[in-house]
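Subject: Protein record for review, amino acid sequence with backbone structure tokens
How to read it: Take the token row as a discrete description of the fold.
Enclosed: The protein record, placed directly beneath this head.
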Amino acid sequence: MSAIAFMVNSVHINNMEKEKLFLIEVRNKTRVTDVFGYMIKKDIMETGIQEIEEVLTSSLYRLKGVCCHRELIRIAEEILIDAVAQDYFLDNSGIRKRGAGYNVIDVFYKEGVTDTVAETVMTAVKDAGIKNLFSASTGKRYYLKGRLNRQDIETICMKVLVNPLIQNYSVVKDNNA
């Protein structure tokens, strides 16, 4: 596990503590088949992009609040993962551990779109006694392996991975860059 949680943004709260945005990635352990990734690969191939070799998926949780590292680990281990089948990563360490050769795309709901999974996470966090977490949002991370150019990645995002009416996406790692 990463020893430092990923801080995306911070603002002052009560002039003493800082509100931060943290990222937790949850994905299947290497011995567990990624069935969702397999289905996405088939959908990509149906668009005519045959260069796709593998698709792996993860769930992303963006948490905003005043949290210590120990609380993030507790949230991941007690609320977000199935310890038998899944691993978690704090910050973007999951990208480094996945290895080279993958394009990485993150997809999140747009601001204002109801995110029922995030609401459930917030309820569970509060029930666990963690009081300084103020909001959560959920998304998906897609690891795409293959000889894909930027146009292929754009096509995959717009035709398979993203509903542009309710979701935004970002290419976190582009092997063409």
In short: The beta strands are 10-13, 17-28, 52-65, 86-90, 102-109, 133-146, 167-173.
